[in-house]
User: What shape does this take?
Amino acid sequence: MIKELANAFKVEELRKKLLFTLFIIILYRLGSFIPIPGVPRGVFAKLFRESAILGFLNIFTGGALENLAIFALGIMPYITASIIMELLTVVIPQVERWAKEGEEGRRKIVQWSRYLTLILALIQSFFIMNSLRLSIPVINKMVIVITLVSGMALIMWMAELITQRGIGNGMSLLIFTSIISRFPQAIAETLQVASPAYIGLVIVVVCLAIAGIIFIEQGQRRIPVSYAKRIIGRRVYGGASTYLPVKINSAGVIPIIFASSVLFFPAAMAKVMPSGILQDLANSLERASFLYLFLYFVLIIFFTFFYSEIIFNPVRLAEDLQKWGGFIPGVRPGAPTTDYINRILKRVTFPGAVFLGVVALFPTVLLSQTKIPFFKFFGGTSILITVGVALDTVKQIEAQLLMRRYEGLLK
Assistant: This one.
């Protein structure tokens, strides 16, 4: 591994990309410690201990929310906006046309994602302000909200810079950095209170989780596809055979994010609009309760199937195959091909959905039973994101090395 990393820095272009990515990550982490002016930190620390919602959000900000820093909103509003725009490609015809227009359409979608990000950041800023319940002048509250939204805009710009000029996906790397930054604190608190047996349990669980995630992330079902021969002039085109890869976990961590958002919504509304009904519902969905775990698992499975259908549209895929002269051996083009792909997708998605549910719930159950601090910082979602982003980034570095005839990081 050390030799391969050294090879990566030997290539000038790749070295510049790696150093640029590292520079942006350092700036991002520095912004997580610059405090917002006009907010007493002691008041917020008390609310932080009492709110499961703030604790969940803090995981994806790398402690910036806990520090009341200018980057307290983290990258999540940008990720949420990007997911919403992707979902709108199925609902709104205009957005669907943009998605089919190539680079020009992609720029339009990105631009609207930025606008939506700022709206979500503004809403989240008001939610944080309401949670603080500070008796300060209105002008100070406006300064806090503007600082939070401006910090989010700066994070969005940093993520796009990494994607364009660095290595890997900018959004994924920033959230990966935020999660990993909590690792030293998680280890320190675990060593202080946990016995050697519990520390061994943490190591075993994390290793099994990483192995399972890698196995599922790499797993895929390959649907064979053949292309008919076409004679154009004196040349023969087509006749090749390939396959359609259907990943076991094609939805990634998006179902977990959606399910968490749905379950946290009653508690968030109870903070903004105190109500007996909302408060009772929020209390009944208290983290690690049976109702919470059951609904969490069911919602993860539902959103996994829902999102997989969107990103791997069987109808559109069958139409594209027929358009380019492709067919699945033994299956008629048109509706039979759509039904066949849909049936394969459902069979492959089910184990992936169950796996996501288990990965998301198991650390939460262990935390409630053992009180090991490590699982407070690194739940199933955190481990899944960390391993997934690491694999994707290593593959991109490997591809750059193989283009220049160096051995990759993965063998």
Notes: The chain has two domains: 1-182, 183-377.
